[in-house]
Queue: 4 jobs
Job 1
Amino acid sequence: MNSSGVRDEVFDLLVVGAGPTGLACAIEAQKAGFKAVLVDKGCVCNSLFHYPSHMTFFTTSELLEIGDIPFPSPNAKPTRNEALQYYRQVAAHYRLDVRQYHRVDRVTGAEDAFTVHTVDRFGRHGVLDARKLAIATGYYDLPNMMGIPGENLSKVHHYYDDPHPYFGLDVMVIGGKNSAAIAALELWRHGARVMLVHRDAELHRHVKYWIKPDIENRIKNGEITAYFRSQVVEITPDNAVLETPEGRVTVRNDFVFAMTGYHPDFDFLEELGVRFEGPDKLPVCDAETLESNVPGIYLAGVIVAGSRTNEIFIENGRFHGRQIAQALASKR
C-alpha cells in the first residue's frame, strides 16, 4: 500500500495453482510482457510433491517441458524427484513470483479489477489485485470419497506414498486403474499381504501395458487376492466388509488405500461464477482463448475437461499458458 493506504501493485495475471500448467501460464504471460504472480495453497508443484517418492512418469521428459527449457534425464521415463528439480529450476530461471502456502479464500471484483483474498498457513489474511485470473488448480487435492461407514478412520488413505510402513500387514487396495495396480504391486513386493477390490469384472483397459500383465499374473498365482464385481461397504478398525457376487464378506484388514480417483474443485469454480455443462461438468470455456463465461477468468489444465480427468495431463495442459497469453495480448 502507498501512504494513502491504497494498494498500488496490480498484476496483469494472477494464476491460482503453481503446478506445471500454472507455471507455464505465468511464464508465457511474462514472455508476452505481462506482470504475473502465482498463488498456491501448498508448495510449487504441490500435487507432484505428494506423488509416491519413487514414482516414475509414464511419459518422456521432453513431453513435460515448459518455458522452452530442456528437461534432461538419463532415464527413458523421468522420476518424480527429477521432475520436481526441473520445475524448481524453471521457476528460478524465470524468477517467477510464487506465493506458496497461500490459499485463495475468495475473489471479488470483475475483469481488470479482481481482488483475490488469501489466507496463509498461520491464518493471516492478504489481498492481491489483478486484471485477469488463470485457474490452474488441477484435481489431485480432492479425492472421490466412497461415502461408506469407516472411511474417516486413520487407517484409510486416498493417496499412496511408500510401501515400507505396511510390511507384514493386511492391506486393501480399492480401484482398478493404474494407481491401484501400481500400489498393489509395490505393497506386495515389499511384504504386505495385498487384497485388491474393484467394482468391475476386470482391471481397467487403460492400465499401462507393462503393468497389466504383471498384476494379472500376481492375481492368477494367488499372490494378490482380488475381488472383482465387488465393493467395500464398511470399514472397521480391524476389518473391511465387502459386497461380492457371492454375498457379503468380512475380511481382516489393517490399512486401506482407496484409489478411487480425484476431481477438480468445482465448488471454487462455481463461487467464481463459472458455469458447467452436461453430466461431466464441463466448464463453459472458449476453446481458443480458454476464457470462461466470466470475463477475465481463464481456465488451464485438467479443469478444462471437468470430470473427464483422463483427457488432460501435463503433456497437453502445458500449452494452455500460450493460449492464455495470446488471448491477453489480443485484449491489450
Note: The mean pLDDT is 95.
Job 2
Amino acid sequence: MFIIFRFIVLGFLTVYLVSCSPEKNISAKVENLDLAQVVKTYSEIVYATYVDSHAAAKEMSKSINEFLDSPSEQSFIAAKESWISARLPYLQTEVYRFYGGPIDDEDGPEGLLNAWPMDEAYVDYVKGAPDSGIINDDKAYPEITKDLLISLNEKDGEENISCGYHAIEFLLWGQDFQTNGPGERPHTDYTTAANAERRKEFLKITVSLLLENLESLVNEWVPSKANYRSNFLKEDSLVAIQKILSGMTLLSGFELAGERLLVAYESRAQEDEHSCFSDTTHNDAIYDIVGIINVWSGTYKALDGTKIEGPGIRALATDQDPALGSKIDKALMSALGKSKAIPTPFDQAILAKDGSESRKAIINLIEELENVADGFVTIAKNSGINVSKEPEP
C-alpha cells in the first residue's frame, strides 16, 4: 500500500509544482510600486486557493461517503487518496494565517481545521486501549453530533482534537507503527468492528464540518461582497502589506521551521510529526513553501486551470532592492528543493543517526526557511513597517 501512496503523492507534486499588529503612524518608503495592486493580487490568490481547498474537500467528502456507504478495501484506499489530494491546496493557504484574518481571529476556524498534534486516544481505540475515545464511550456520549464534536475539540487540552484534517486522517489510517509506510487501519473498522456505526457517524460529521468551515473562508474572501476581503482592500496598503508579510514570515520561520520541523527533529518523536498517520508530512513542508511562493510571486494556477498573475511581494522587494529580491528568489527555490530532498517517510528521517544525510536534510531546510524569514523581515523594514519572526504573546 505504501508504494501506491508514494506514487500518488509524486503525481500530485508534478501537477501542483508545474502548474503582528500594524504599527501606528506607518510612513511609506516605497515610491515606484502601486501597493494597492499587490494587495489586490494577494486577495485574488487567497480567494482562489480557498475555493480550491473547498472543492478538493468536497471531492474528499464524496469519496469518503462512498466508502461509508459501501465499505471495502478498494473504496477505503480511494478515500485515503482523496484525503491526500484535499490537503494539497489547503496547505497552500497556511500562509494566510498569523495576522488575525478570518482563518485565525477570535472566531476563526483554524483550530477546527488543522489542529495538531493529536491525542489519538481522545477519539478512538489505540494500541493497548481498545475501549478508549469518544467513539467507544457511548455512555458519556450516547449520540455523536456536530455540536458535540465542536464542543469537545481542544477541550481540556490542545491535543484533545476531535475535528479537522488530522482527526479525519487518524480515522482513515489509524496509528502508524510501520517503518516504511503509513498506518494500517483496516476497512473492517467500519463494518464488523466494535462501534463501527459510531465510527462512521464520527467520520461523516467531521468531514461535513470541515466543508462548512472551508466554505466560511471562501465567503470571507469572495469579491464584491461586504466581508473581510472588502475591508482588507480598504485598509491603508502598507497595513495590509504588513499583515501579508507577517503571514509569510511566521509560517516560514516560526511555524514550519520551528514548530513542525525543529521540534520533531529534536524530539525524534513520531507524535510531533505533522501528518503522522498517513506519512505525508513531506507534503506539508513542500506545499507550505509553495503557498509562500504563490504570495511572493503573485501567481497561482487554480485547479480549473485559471491563472492569477499580478504584482506580488517580490515586486515590492525588487522595487526596493533588486539584489534583495534576487536573494529571496534563490532562498525560496532552495527551500523548495530542500523540502523535496528530505527522505520519506519523515518519521524515519527524524530517527536517523546524528550526522546522517537524513538529519542533515532536515536541518538544511530549517536553516533555509530561517533565511527566507529574515528576508521578509528586511522587506518590512525597508518599507517602514515591522514584522516579527515570533508570534505575539
Note: The CA atoms of residues 191 and 232 lie 48 Å apart.
Job 3
Amino acid sequence: MLTRMSVADAKKHLSELMSRVVYKNERFLIERRGKPMAALVSAEDLAQLEQEPTASKGLRAAVGAWADFEDLDQVIDDIYRQREQSTDRPVSFEA
C-alpha cells in the first residue's frame, strides 16, 4: 500500500513510519508542495529494486549488451553482409 504525505508530516512521524514500513510492509511517498520528492520503503524492497535484472531496463540494457562483443565492427559487418545476401525480403541500405 502506498501512502502520500508531506515532508512536514513525514518528519513529525518518522519513527512510526519506519515501523509501519518494516512491520506492515507499507510504503510512503513523501511530497513537497504536492510534488513527489522521495519514497520510504523497507531495506528489503530497496535491495530487490537494486537487484533488478538488466534486461528489464530497456534500451540501456541493449546498449550495455554490446559491451560483451570484443569486435563490434566485425559483428556489424556480418549483419550487413547477411542482409545483403538474404533473398527472402528486399532490404534497402539507403537512408
Note: The helical segments are 7-12, 14-24, 43-50, 59-65, 72-85.
Job 4
Amino acid sequence: MKRMMTLLLLSTGVFAGHEAKAQRTYEEMEQLTVNEQVTTVITASEPVRLVDISTDKVAGDQPIDNVIRLKPKEAGHEDGEVLAIVTIVTERYRTQYALLYTTRMQEAVTDKEIQLRERNAYENPAVSMSTVDMNRFARRIWNSPAKYHNVASKAHRMVMRLNNIYSVGDYFFIDFSIDNKTNIRFDIDEIRVKLADKKVSKATNTQVVELSPALVLEQSKSFRHGYRNVIVLKKMTFPNGKMLSIEMTEKQISGRNISMNIDYEDVLSADSFNAVLLEED
C-alpha cells in the first residue's frame, strides 16, 4: 500500500454541536465483514479529509482522494469479533463503519460505496470551499468570455494567454489558454505554478517558490490546436518584485515548454469578481 494512514485519536466531542443525534453503538452502525486475505475498498463521493481507525488491528491507506483501503493485520480472531471502528470524514459529511472479522474469506466485503443514507452532514472547518463547488465555479469561469487581452507569451509557434482571474472566497481562479499554431500535437507532461523574482540579478540568488494548485479543472493530457484550463490557487499576497508564473511542459522527446508571467497588478484586479457569473441557472 502506498502510504499508511496515520491513526488519529479523535478527542471526545470533536463532532459535538454538528448533529443533535443520540449516541450510537457499533451494533447500530453499518457493519463490514473483513478478512486478512481480502482488501476492503471504501469509495466516497468526494475527497476524504480524515480517516480514524480506532485500533491497530486494521491497516489502512488512501491511494487516491476519495478511496480508502482496509485490511486486518493478522488472523486468529473469532467470527463476529469487532476489530475496529473506522470513521471517515469528507468535505461535507462523515460516516462510521464497524469492522467485523470473518474467518470465511468469501464473506469479506471487497467493494463498498458510501451510500446517501450512511452520510451524516458535517461542516468541516478545514474546508472553506468543497471540491464540488470549486469545480462548478471553475467550469462557469471556463465558459465565460475573456476579460484580459494583454497578458500573453509566445514560444515554439504557440501562444499562451491569460483569459480571466477571479477571486472566489479564499481562492484565486486563473483561466488561461494556449493556441498551438503547428500541426504537432502537444503531449502534456506537467503544469507548474511558481512565484519568482521579476528581475534576476547575477549578484543575488533567485528564490522560486512552487505553488500547489487546489484544483486543475481539465485533466486532458494532450491537445493539437487549442487548449483551455482553470487553475485554482489558495489566496495569497506577494510583493511587486515577484510575479506568478504558469508553465506547461511537454513529454520527451520533443520536450517543448511554454510559460506565462502574471504581475501582481493583474492578480489585484481579481477583486472585481462579478458574483452574477456564479449564480445557479
Note: The longest helix spans residues 131-142.
